[in-house]
């Protein structure tokens, strides 16, 4: 059997695959966080709760309306985006003039409320959500078995990240976003409805979290705790990438997923802390993050 | 005389608790270039920002083409026809020259086409893919003015367009303003550089301590030089 540093190739590739899957979710979630922070200057601690809502909305659609994975992939993120609109309009829009800390505290409280409610209603054990029939089974690549759905998640996350990047870098809407990040008053003086832009941005960020949640539902279980578990890692990813940097969020998300996977192979004891160790090192050497502006 | 394009009456404005404009009146007629003169801190920029709505704590009457602007949210004021070029130019570092140019939405028909803009500002055409803030100060000023010309705004509010620029660039900005005047553009200019202002303006207002203390036409300028020397410290 082929081995790499004493580890069998299938085992190594298997862990790298898990790392890449996790990295796909880190990238999608940190992308939403970066978009929201870049424009609203709000550290959206409710992002994990919105990811969990996406998974639950997909589960609700299936269980109560018989609506399957593919329509849910569109409907659930839209539902989460709508929740985002309400949160932005009712709560966040009132605190833009205050210190960033208030946004963090408000969204943190909101996450506790949303997750608490779902824990109260559905417990912590998690609900199953099956893999869509199209993606049942696996590809045999010779050196490893690649489950079809996991391959789909990786491809889908790359498409989501690329589409979001194109939206921000190559469209008029993206130009408004980038300009309003620097000088919202001037952009508004040009005739752009910046308050609406803020609402839309938060809705897009929340929708991205919701989309990640739907994609995660068949991989992990649909559980009220799923957001809590991932959001801390995602925040570390965003800090390492550079707060507000789209490119930083995406690249760091994938790379750290792979690093975490490799750590599981070579030094499993450190696999749950490696990302935070990297965060500390990056903060010491480059406080603005790897892709952030100093 | 015809109805003014821009009519400001009894404009008062505050920065926080500080009362900085005390009942400013001014009028700008279609096709005119009007300059606000005054020393540092006289309230010229504040007047411009209050008219544009960037400074929200204000009272009085501001009408453009007879339309009341006071109650409008900031983004709707641009659609009434005001085009704002701020003192700090407001070039976005994350956007290319071309993206900066295309950023403000068109608020009315009749703005300059991209070809006309690049003809008027050939430097911008050459550097269209450069990052906006990589331009020289003069080029950034050109870009700030060009950006508003595209929108179809019917009056330009220019805040200190020559500030910090080399004489040769100041002359170029003067040429641009004269070209805009020749096209019938209406301009309200705030300027400390009196020698520049006297070459381009049709009419002047003089401000001191948040009040308008004098107004006169370009033809009356010579007769006002003594009082201007005293007020502006020329």
TrEMBL record, chain A:
The way this protein sits in the membrane is described as: Multi-pass membrane protein
Q: List the GO cellular component terms.
A: plasma membrane
Q: Which Pfam families match?
A: BPD_transp_2 (PF02653)
The biological process GO terms on file are: amino acid transport
Keywords for this entry?
A: Amino-acid transport, Cell membrane, Membrane, Transmembrane, Transmembrane helix, Transport
Transmembrane domains' residue ranges: 12-35, 42-62, 68-88, 100-122, 151-168, 200-220, 232-259, 265-285
Q: Mostly located where?
A: membrane
Please give the CDD domains that the UniProt record associates with this protein: TM_PBP1_LivH_like
Q: Which GO terms describe its molecular function?
A: transmembrane transporter activity
- Give the UniProt family note: Belongs to the binding-protein-dependent transport system permease family. LivHM subfamily.
Q: Where in the cell is it found?
A: Cell membrane
InterPro entries on file: ABC_transp_permease, BCAA_transport_permease
Source species, domain of life: Bacteria
Question: What's the protein name?
Answer: Branched-chain amino acid transport system permease protein
Automatic annotation (TrEMBL), chain B:
SUPFAM superfamilies this protein is in?
Answer: P-loop containing nucleoside triphosphate hydrolases
Which terms are listed as keywords in the entry?
A: Amino-acid transport, ATP-binding, Nucleotide-binding, Transport
> Which biological process, per GO, is one annotated for this protein?
L-amino acid transport
Q: Does the keyword tRNA processing apply?
A: no
ABC transporter domain location: 6-234
Q: Which SMART domains match?
A: AAA
* InterPro entries named among the record's database cross-references: AAA+_ATPase (IPR003593), ABC_transporter-like_ATP-bd (IPR003439), ABC_transporter-like_CS (IPR017871), BCAA_Transport_ATP-bd_LivF (IPR052156), P-loop_NTPase (IPR027417)
- The source's superkingdom equals Bacteria
**An MF annotation (GO) of this entry:** branched-chain amino acid transmembrane transporter activity
The yes or no answer to whether the keyword Secreted is present is: no
Similarity comment: Belongs to the ABC transporter superfamily.
This protein is called what? Answer: Branched-chain amino acid transport system ATP-binding protein
Species whose genome carries this gene: Camelimonas lactis
